[in-house]
Design a protein that fits this description.
With 169 residues, the chain is mainly alpha-helical. A hairpin with a 2-residue loop joins strand 1 and strand 2 (32-33). It contains 8 helices and 4 strands. The strands form 2 sheets. Strands 1-2 form a two-stranded antiparallel ribbon. The protein has a two-stranded antiparallel ribbon with strand order 3-4.
Length: 169
């Protein structure tokens, strides 16, 4: 079992095929690097909740595989689901916590910017346009919504909007 208990760069930096954001380098909790947005995005698609304590037990190669595995079709999602629950069982001996799969997630709606994102954007004087919202990748939209949720540490929200080219100052 391998743990990443330091502030060295993430194993996700510079890996082709992974949409990993610079602001995520700041995601640390109890000296463990948090689950990257790309994996959180895929976990939501697969309907599995992964706790940080479980994530921290995975080998770096297993974490990278979770970021790389596709979840763009039903068969791929089923494979992802099985791989993730097998990892959780392997390292914890526990059954995975299942999540309800949102069939119409807010990040996928290109016709409307979610209200909580508008409110959070207003706090930093960002007037997010529908064109900007549409131009973001799925994982960028997903990340912005995760970062503006109540109870989430929001210090990375301004960093994310800058990284995504939405705020220039």
């Amino acid at each position: 079992m391998s743990k990443n208990n330091n502030t060295s760069p993430s194993e996700f930096i510079n890996i082709q095929g992974i949409e990993y954001f610079n602001f995520e380098e700041d995601f640390m909790e109890d000296n463990v690097r948090c689950i990257p947005m790309v994996v959180r995005f895929k976990m939501d698609a697969a309907g599995v909740k992964l706790k940080l304590s479980e994530w921290s037990k995975f080998d770096p190669e297993e974490r990278v595989k979770l970021a790389l595995l596709p979840t763009d079709q039903n068969e791929a999602i089923a494979i992802y689901h099985q791989y993730l629950i097998a990892l959780i069982a392997k390292y914890t001996g526990n059954a995975a916590t299942k999540l309800a799969i949102d069939q119409q997630p807010a990040w996928a709606n290109l016709q409307q910017i979610p209200e909580m994102l508008i409110e959070k954007s207003n706090e930093i004087a960002l007037n997010l346009s529908l064109n900007q919202w549409e131009s973001l990748t799925d994982i960028q939209r997903f990340a912005l919504l995760k970062l503006c949720r109540p109870g989430h540490e929001n210090k990375n929200f301004p960093k994310a909007v800058k990284e995504f080219g939405l705020l220039t100052n």
